[in-house]
Amino acid sequence: MTRKRVGVLMSGRGSNMEALLAAASDPAFPAEIALVMSNNADAGGLATAARQGVTTAVVDHRPYGKDRESFERALDARMRDAGVDLVCLAGFMRVLTPVFVGAWDGRLLNIHPSLLPAYTGLHTHERALNDGVRVHGCTVHFVTPVLDVGPIIAQAVVPVVSGDDPDALAARVLRQEHQLYPRALELIASGAAWLENGRVAYRDAAAAARATLFDPTP
């Protein structure tokens, strides 16, 4: 099996990056983490990745000012130098331009803390509670130029329980994020799922079933 080479972009602690690293530590996993890169030299996730022997890099966005495309060309060059096949965003706090997104079309994944298409953007848990929803969750999707509306690869669902506040709900969702992101990457890297005509296609019913997680635990 030829494992897909994955580049991870992150800006902070990188807990989802850690989940991807843990999954990729299994030689049977169809992807390996080839590069962890951040726009923030102080990002805690860089040290975590380095301790596990993963190549890390920093491309600080600040010297580029408003020239986002030059910043992204530097990101792109590092990815290609590392032989990256797929890119995973894991708490990368920069909005990417259509140029970068188009260059990695069908190979650029992100995880978002809501059941898309509901609650794009920020403060998803607070907004869900304010609306009185009974379930919430997270979504792994392909990135498109429009924020948080790309084709859905996989979703995890958690209950909303009486007495929840945004922090409690966020913690419940985060536990599922750490399971869902590796599973979604596995589906794409193994060829069990792919982007086709603007939607995600699955190899068979078993692959499609793996794209949904339910956690009934409050």
UniProtKB/TrEMBL annotation:
<feature type="binding site">
    <location>
        <begin position="14"/>
        <end position="16"/>
    </location>
    <ligand>
        <name>N(1)-(5-phospho-beta-D-ribosyl)glycinamide</name>
    </ligand>
</feature>
<dbReference type="InterPro" id="IPR002376">
    <property type="entry name" value="Formyl_transf_N"/>
</dbReference>
<comment type="similarity">
    <text>Belongs to the GART family.</text>
</comment>
<feature type="site" description="Raises pKa of active site His">
    <location>
        <position position="148"/>
    </location>
</feature>
<dbReference type="Pfam" id="PF00551">
    <property type="entry name" value="Formyl_trans_N"/>
</dbReference>
<dbReference type="InterPro" id="IPR036477">
    <property type="entry name" value="Formyl_transf_N_sf"/>
</dbReference>
<dbReference type="InterPro" id="IPR004607">
    <property type="entry name" value="GART"/>
</dbReference>
<comment type="pathway">
    <text>Purine metabolism; IMP biosynthesis via de novo pathway; N(2)-formyl-N(1)-(5-phospho-D-ribosyl)glycinamide from N(1)-(5-phospho-D-ribosyl)glycinamide (10-formyl THF route): step 1/1.</text>
</comment>
<feature type="binding site">
    <location>
        <position position="68"/>
    </location>
    <ligand>
        <name>(6R)-10-formyltetrahydrofolate</name>
    </ligand>
</feature>
<feature type="domain" description="Formyl transferase N-terminal">
    <location>
        <begin position="4"/>
        <end position="185"/>
    </location>
</feature>
<comment type="function">
    <text>Catalyzes the transfer of a formyl group from 10-formyltetrahydrofolate to 5-phospho-ribosyl-glycinamide (GAR), producing 5-phospho-ribosyl-N-formylglycinamide (FGAR) and tetrahydrofolate.</text>
</comment>
<protein>
    <recommendedName>
        <fullName>Phosphoribosylglycinamide formyltransferase</fullName>
        <ecNumber>2.1.2.2</ecNumber>
    </recommendedName>
</protein>
<feature type="active site" description="Proton donor">
    <location>
        <position position="112"/>
    </location>
</feature>
<keyword id="KW-0658">Purine biosynthesis</keyword>
<keyword id="KW-0808">Transferase</keyword>
<dbReference type="GO" id="GO:0004644">
    <property type="term" value="F:phosphoribosylglycinamide formyltransferase activity"/>
</dbReference>
<feature type="binding site">
    <location>
        <position position="110"/>
    </location>
    <ligand>
        <name>(6R)-10-formyltetrahydrofolate</name>
    </ligand>
</feature>
